[in-house]
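Lab channel / #folding
Pinned by the channel admin:
"Please post every new chain as: sequence first, then the C-alpha cells as a reply. Keep commentary short and put observations after the output so the thread stays searchable."

First post following the new format, from NK:
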Amino acid sequence: MNGTLMPHESIAARTALVLETNNLRGGADAGAAAASLLHVVGLLSRQTVPLTALAQVVITHDGLGEETRAAAERLAGRAIDFVRIDAGTGYYSAKNDGFAATDAARCDYVCFADTDCVPAPDWLAQLLAPLDSATPPAAVAGRTSYAATVAGAALTTIDFMYFPSPLQAGATRNFYANNVVFRREVFAHHSYQSLDGVYRAHCQVLGLRLQEAGVALHYAAAAHTEHKLPDTRGELFKLRWLRGQDTQGLTPHLVRAYLPAGMQWLAHSGPIGPLCVLASRLWFSMRSLNRQDLPPLRGARRLSALALIAAFSAVDMLGALFRGLGLRTAGGIDADARALSYHQRQPGARL
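Reply from TO:
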C-alpha cells in the first residue's frame, strides 16, 4: 500500500476480529490443531487490511499451549486476546464469549471468522468497505463457499445459499457465522440464542430474527472466504447427517417466518415439515448451480455436480427423517461439541 491510508482504515481501527477454534477440535491431536490455527493466522496477517490495523483480535480456545499462543502473536504482529472456554462450549456460544471479550470503548464493529476457512487476500477489506459510508449498514455478510471443485460447487449450493432480503436492495436474508461483521450494539442486542439439539442452524435463525426486527444484512459478495471440506469422506457423511437433523429444529422458525397461518401445523409435523423444507432446498440448489460466483461447470462436470447435489440432499433427508421419527443419531445432544475434522491445507483434496 506504499504507506497510503486505505479509505476504510478508520473502520478497521474500530473493529475487533473474533476467531474461534471449535472447528479445529476434531480428528487431530493438539499439534495438528495448532498448525491449522497458525496457518489461518498467517493468512489473515497478510490481508490487504492486516491484523495490525484492527482495534483488537480475540481467539477463543479450550487449551492452546503457551508456545502456540506466542507463535500466533508473532505471526499476527500484534497482541491477541486469548479467551479460555470450557471444552464443552459450543460453536455459537464460543462466538458469544469472544464478543463479550471485545472492548466496547475501542470496538464499534465486531467481525467473526472461522479457523477452518481460507480468506481471500482482500476478504477483510471487502467486508469492511460497506461500513465506510454516510449510512453504514447494521451488518455485512460476506460470501462463503467451498472449493471450486465439482463436489465443492455442489455442496456450496446446499450449505451456502444467499437469498435477497425484502428489507432493502443489496441485502441478504441469511448469513453465515464464519464471514460477517456486526455493528456492536446490533450483535449485543440479538446475539446467538441457545437452540436445543441443533448443530449449526443458529446463524440461520438469527438471520430470521434480524429480518423480523427490520435489521438489513448488507451482502458483500466480494468478501469471500473458502470453507474447508471435512478431511475424510466419513466426516463428510457425518456433516450431511447432522445438517439433515438440524432441519428438524430449523423448520418451526422457517414455517413461522414464511408460511400462512393455515400451514403452521408443519412446524410440528414430525418428519413431514423438515422433508418439505429439504425438498424445497433441493430445488433451489439445483437452480443455483453456476450462479454462485464460482467458475461455471459445463457438460459432464455440470451433470456430475447435479448428481452430487441430489446424493448429498438424500443423506440430509435421511438424517431429517430419522430425527423426525425420534431416532437421533450421529452425536446426540453433544453433536456441536464433537467437532468434525477440518485440517486439510487444500480444501477438497481427498474428495
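NK: The first helix runs from residue 9 to 12.
TO: also worth noting, The beta strands are 15-20, 56-61, 81-84, 109-114, 117-119, 139-145, 171-172, 179-183, 217-227.
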